[in-house]
Amino acid sequence: xxxxxxIFLLSSVAMAAFFTSCEDSIDKVxxxxxxxxxxxxxxxxxxxxxxxxxxxxxxxxISDSKNAITDGVxxxxxxxxxxxxxxxxxSKTSFIAYNNVASSVINLKSITVSMWIKTDPxxxxxxxxxxxxxxxxxxxxIFTLIEGTGPATTMLMKNHTQxxxxxxxxxxxxxxxxxxxxxxxxxxxAWKHLVWTxxxxxxxxxxxxxxxKLDLPLxxxxxxxxxxxxxxxxxxxxxNSEVSKFIIGGFQQHLGPPFGxxxxxxxxxxxxxxxxxxxxxxxxxxxxxxxxxxxKDNR
Length: 299
Prior knowledge:
The protein is an alpha+beta fold. The chain has helices spanning 2-30, 103-106, 218-221, 285-296; strands at 52-56, 69-75, 78-81, 86-89, 95-101, 111-118, 126-132, 142-147, 154-166, 169-178, 184-185, 192-199, 204-209, 212-213, 246-248, 266-268, 272-279.
């Protein structure tokens, strides 16, 4: 009897060792396989992390995860499935007003603005994706607008910045318009990754759609106060001033005093927006391409 009990114990130990060995083998076989890097990066937040000053993912919240743009209040804000998690869903009355803007945004010298948008053609005016206001300037400091084009397949877009050519001399109302031969094609009805950059050192502007840099004419890409062949100087670094508040989905005039009342053509953004980022540098072509692919891959 004792012999049989001893054999049984040995068998139990052997069986336990066998199953443990099998489990270890299964764990090794089924262990997660690391994602392949894209552009040298594992995830979107690994791209220029020291230059990322604001990030809005809109995953059920209006908060900036970098805490550079804070104290936000949303009006008629809702969310919908986005390119990565949830997305901000605009409407004819929706916008988000932020009351505090950190120096990391105010003192931008160069910039990259990156976002995903999904929208349809509209009429009646211009829709504002976002704006960094200025108290004493009708056009604010920085914004991106989508002009109403009606039921067309092209998007007329305007970007706007403040710059200094010489110290303390602000150049207001400098528009970069994608119109005429530079209208943006195939932008409606689907998610599009939109990135624009401005390098304050080289006075160079670039626009990327779905990770690809557009071939822009020199009149758009190189920013001069006037014809450089006639002595015109480059705009140089950004020069935001009198910054007060920040708005997503509307114009500064939608914030009320001291910005006045909105004109009838000033429209709220009615589309979807996701993964809105601001960098304090002009991202490289490789960084923009990687950002597009990684966010599209939900990383």
